[in-house]
Amino acid sequence: MKTGIFFAALASILFSGAAFAADGIESVQGKTVMVVQAHPDDAESRCAGTVALLKKHGNRIIYVVATRDDKGVYDVNADPGVHAALRKREEEDAVKVLKIDVLEWLGYDDGWLDMVPHDKLRGDVVRMMRKYKPDILMAFDPRNADEHMDHRAVAFASMDAVTAAPFPLYYADQIKKDGLSPHQVQQIYYYDTLEPNVWVDIQETIEIKIDALGKHVSQKGADRAKIAEDMKSKARRDGAAKGIRYAESLRAADLYIGVTPASVPKLRAGLSRTEITPPVGYIMGGYGARKGVSTGVHDPLTATVLYLECGADNLALVALDLRSFPSERVLKRAKEELGVRHVLLASSHTHSGPITWEKQDWPTPESPWFRDAENKIVDAIAKARNGSFPAHIEAGSGAAYIGHNRRMVQPDGSVGMFWRNPDRTPTQPLDPTVRLLRIADMDGKIRAVGVHYACHGVNLGPDNLEISADWPGYMRREIEQELGNGALCFFLQGASGDINPYLDKQPVKEGGFAAAQESGHIIAVEALRILKRMRPAASGEGSIDVGENLFEVPNRWAPSKSIPIGVSTVVLNKNIALVAVPGEAFVELQKSIADQSPLANTFFLGYCYSAGGVWAGYLPTIRASTEGGYGAGYNTDVAVGTGERVIRQAVINLYRSLGRLPDIPER
Fold this sequence. Notes:
- Among the domains are: about 5-255, LmbE-like (Rossmann fold, 3-Layer(aba) Sandwich), CATH 3.40.50; about 545-655, no CATH class.
- It is elongated.
- The protein is of the alpha/beta class.
- It is built from 17 helices and 28 strands.
């Protein structure tokens, strides 16, 4: 196909494409958004409210400005170079207000973009797309017969670049010589449009937009009140048709070319569950003070498998009602026999289950429960894989309180253990965030819900001799009953190494199981609330990227000995991050990864074995190690700073998975 015909066909397709849902862009999280504009202030005056909203939602924003704006002044004696420098400073100041991640200048002269060979301008935009890998493009609407020649030129160059960027033979030198790779933009939102189909509510960001535009004093003057009135007046007009107080109107366009539908990776999910309750009479784990073995089963223990597949990449997330379950054998069998490349064994850390890896020959060496559980888990992974279906996976979050930090720092800096907190005295650090994974089929039917929270599974104490999943089991069963239709719920434990439920070790005779049920109920109610306000997913397309590291960590008490610790990071759809750590991390490490992660939806999976090595035990922070106490001054073996080291590497892995750490130097 000749290039001219090809791009004309593209225009026809884009101009006839179905619009995205009106609330689509407002629900975007964890994506990379590229905003292409002709001059400094083009985006600030037209779509900065939306840009600020996207930034608030954890998206990465790339600004590309085509010209130096060296002629935007009415004084014939003005020096274009001086004016361009002024405009550059103003744009840099505006970018700081909007918290834009990257500002790129193409460097063309103002007013001459329509005279630049189209393939050159288009190639520059293609280079930006291949360099920064945007999921979403925002640009001038090419349908709008704009009065400014630069606006028109940038509009068509941006639209055409979306088509050229995925094909390696367009601008092949960018790939052969510069080390870039083809890239497909997934969505386009056109601003400055005459045919809007998306109205973005910018009430919470309009003041940010006004502040950013106010930095362009050479163009807008220094009267903020006038700028505010102009912008609010326009936003009121844009929102009037939809009953929105302040809105920005955009035109969303679907993309049907660039990558054929058959070659676009589609996310598939599979689900299964198997019971792994040990026989009665088995040694229970979690409490040194417990006397005797299990005498019965209050509620069965299960392994719930979420299998995910996208193209050649796949993984199995196995949620276990166990204290811990480091099994190299499960990882090896899943990979060699089933072709499942990555397995995450995520334990809930109930203290009313069996010991696991510490005793692998009970009841007999020939037929031990531990090996039987391993085999059941592998079979469940196979069942989930074989029953996979096209799926959406989305994340949401809220907050609830069922626990406290069990380390009480004294005035002298020492630590006393604050195991129970029936009065619910506020403590810190604490992370009350309830995080949610929703897995739905292409009809929108919810097939599974994963609930993440950081709190020990110890409402039941050492006096309890009945097998139980503790509060996470109650939570899981309540959500499944509410959802119905065979939907599964699984629990993902967070960094709860120093977090206990308020009613820690509540004696059975004094309502221990009722306390566990109450804790589970509180989390279930919040999870269901989050679920109800989550919006439907926009696409079944996806991606899976996994990073693995095996750390050799010195033993704190015997530095000549090392402790191998395997840690995994998973990025799903460039939107959801999982960080799997095989040990009891302190909650401050979970808060740290949430603060540093490039993705708003980051799940710290404590007690999760995935990448070899051994069970790490307690991972305190450096500060906690200096303070001492359980899990920090004793009953921990890893070198001081291991937790921070793990977090630092995990953050690097997440950025690398998102393509933000190039393998070649910048030009």
